[in-house]
Amino acid sequence: MKIERLPLNALRAFAEAARTESFKSAASRLGVTPGAVSRQIKQLEERLGISLFARHANGVQLNEAGRQLAKDIDSGLERIAAGVMAARRHAHQAPLLTLSAPPSFMQLWLLPRLAEFDATLGGLDISLDASQSLTTPAWQGDGARLAIRYGRGPWPEAQSHRMFDDELFPVCAPSLLAHYERSMQPADLANHRLLEVAWESQQGISFPGWRAWLDAAGVGDKVAPPQHRHSLFSMALDQAIAGRGIMLANHPIAMDRLDSGVLVRPFGERHVLASPLTYDLLTPPRGEAPPAVARFIDWLLDEAAAFDRDTHGNARR
């Protein structure tokens, strides 16, 4: 006899009666009469071809077959309950998105904007990895592993979505400009400490430094090379905010600080060096993004497009 052919109401009546060895108590818990419980259990016994209770004038008592069946039913109910709980957890658990990005970009550009995503869209458990390593993107169930990279494509084993191009310009604390009675000129950099980021991607591409900017501004022979180098943009940025030098920065790293006024551009919109590097979002080359991840990708690219419009005056997506 297959278990799926047994009457479920009869199994339920038996399970309740087995716990207390009382048809009356089982009837009370099930909201039926003791006679109904007795008939359901009798039906079950007939299906199984065995007796489950020893019946006495003053009540019933489980026999050995009844005790074994009650044990098996309890075990099955525990497994069913565990399955239901697991299904509920899965239904309410947000998909996991693992996103890696360069440390300074994550700190200075991405993190301040993630709160808006959580507030407006949400639905994702986001794990952030401050890393520039060339991790291969992948779909993972209803989540994903994605990457933001700063460098120069093509990117292996990934589909690339351009966030924005890059350009470099000097930034400094407003106090450094206070003693100038005229507009600061590139040659004046000879009187200041130049802060440089000694960054190199895993592609072997170096961040364009002061030397390239000075040459482009026509003062490469008048200003000495920088003596203060940092491995992270955020470190150099902190030094510039403190008035300890002039940093060669880019929009994603410096724009929020420029907007707040703690940094200024000593040459205004002049003397901007186009960079060969770009910021790109990398997704798996094949397959379709799960819905929650697709919402995040759309949001991130929209944020990048809005940022690009604010900084360059046009959208490049």
CATH topology of the largest domain: D-Maltodextrin-Binding Protein, domain 2
- The low-pLDDT segments are none
CATH architecture of the largest domain: 3-Layer(aba) Sandwich
What's the total number of strands? 11
SSE-based structural type: alpha/beta
Average pLDDT for all residues: 84
Distance between the termini: 66 Å
What value does the Rg take, in angstroms? 35 Å
Brief write-up:
This protein has 317 residues and is α/β, with parallel strands linked by helices. Helices cover 41% and strands 21% of the residues.
Q: What features would you describe in this structure?
A:
- The chain is of the alpha/beta class.
- It is built from nine helices and eleven strands.
- The longest helix has 29 residues, at 64-92.
- It has helices at 8-20, 23-30, 34-48, 64-92, 103-120, 210-216, 233-241, 251-260, 291-312; strands at residues 53-56, 59-62, 96-101, 125-130, 138-140, 143-151, 159-171, 194-197, 228-230, 246-250, 273-283.
- It is rod-shaped and about 115 Å long.
- It has two domains: 3-92, Arc Repressor Mutant, subunit A; 102-317, D-Maltodextrin-Binding Protein, domain 2, CATH 3.40.190.
- Strands 3, 4, 5, 6, 7, 8, 9, 10 and 11 form a nine-stranded mixed beta sheet that branches.
- Helix 1 (8-20) crosses helix 2 and helix 1 packs across helix 4 (64-92).
- Helix content is 41%, strand content 21%.
Features:
317 residues, alpha/beta, 2 domains, two-stranded antiparallel sheet, 21% strand, rod-shaped, D-Maltodextrin-Binding Protein, domain 2, Arc Repressor Mutant, subunit A, nine-stranded mixed beta sheet
